TrEMBL record:
GO terms for molecular function: amino-acid racemase activity. It comes from the Bacteria. It comes from Methylocella tundrae. Transmembrane segments: none annotated. This is Racemase. Belongs to the HyuE racemase family. Gene3D superfamilies: 3.40.50.12500. It holds the Pfam family Asp_Glu_race.
Length: 273
């Protein structure tokens, strides 16, 4: 029996042809033959340009944009997807989404960090949206991994540089390796290459280690975690906890009412959920 995963990006994928195509190819290479990763991005017009970082670097705007992730997760659950994946380093509303749906939910950053802990004692993260370093540090602590976290650094280039590098990757890879070595000097034994566009570029070019430190394929990590969670559930394993403030599930009818009150269901999912 196959697996269908709803992939949710923080970018408008239709604005990013080279990245969109690279993602599709990477998922074909990583996922099992019977796993279908169905790609979704933000709605066209979400951002002023094809660069989401001008919004994502602000906590308030990121929180507002997370409504699209919530609406998409509810739709994925309703449409019978087997798992939902927040395929973005900031993981907007990850905890809240898990409390709203019954299907397994995986987060890009969380999966990368958990995988990193299996590959070495300590890990660090390189980001091209500099302001995300603070959020990544907080997320590592929220995931219970603060003692394994060696820090987050700016990688030395930006989103637009990564997009250009899909045509000529080597100069950017050299810059990445310099930044990775600085993070190793800070104590990192494993490197997480931050945001998904950089991740998929490095994976496509076969960059898997630097000076003996492993480089995590964060996209591959969440695909495999999602597959494993679906397999476990189908084999009779436990579902998620429903205990406590952060995990208790509200009545679905009330969720629909609240979404409709704020105009979220119609505007962001294309139909009433």
């Amino acid at each position: 029996m196959g697996i269908r995963i709803w992939h949710q990006s923080f970018t408008v994928l239709s604005d990013l042809g080279a990245y969109d195509r690279a993602l599709q190819e990477h998922f074909r290479n990583i996922a099992r033959p019977d796993t279908e990763v169905v790609m979704h991005g933000m709605h066209p017009g979400t951002y002023r340009t094809n660069y989401p970082g001008d919004d994502i670097k602000h906590a308030a705007l990121q929180h507002l944009h997370s409504l699209q992730f919530i609406a998409a997760a509810l739709r994925a659950d309703q449409e019978g997807f087997d798992a939902y994946a927040l395929s973005t380093l900031p993981e907007p509303a990850l905890r809240e989404i898990r409390s709203l749906v019954d299907i397994p939910v995986v987060g890009y950053g969380e999966s990368a960090m958990l995988t990193a802990c299996q590959l070495g004692h300590s890990f660090g993260v390189l980001v091209f949206i500099e302001e995300l370093a603070e959020l990544v540090t907080e997320n590592a602590a929220r995931h219970g991994l603060a003692t394994r976290f060696a820090g987050a650094r700016h990688v030395g280039f930006r989103f637009t540089d990564v997009l250009k590098a899909f045509a000529d990757p080597q100069p950017l890879i050299e810059q990445f390796l310099v930044a990775a070595k600085a993070l190793i000097a800070d104590g990192a034994e494993v490197i997480i290459p931050g945001e998904a566009p950089l991740n998929v570029l490095l994976a496509r070019e076969g960059v898997t280690e630097v000076d003996g430190a492993a480089i995590v394929d964060s996209l591959g990590a969440w695909v495999k975690h999602a597959e494993a969670m679906v397999d476990s559930r189908r084999a009779g394993g436990a579902g998620r906890s429903l205990r406590g403030y952060f995990s208790s599930q509200p009545e679905r009818a009330r969720v629909d009412e609240v979404l409709a009150f704020y105009g979220v269901s119609q505007r962001l999912s294309g139909k009433t959920l």
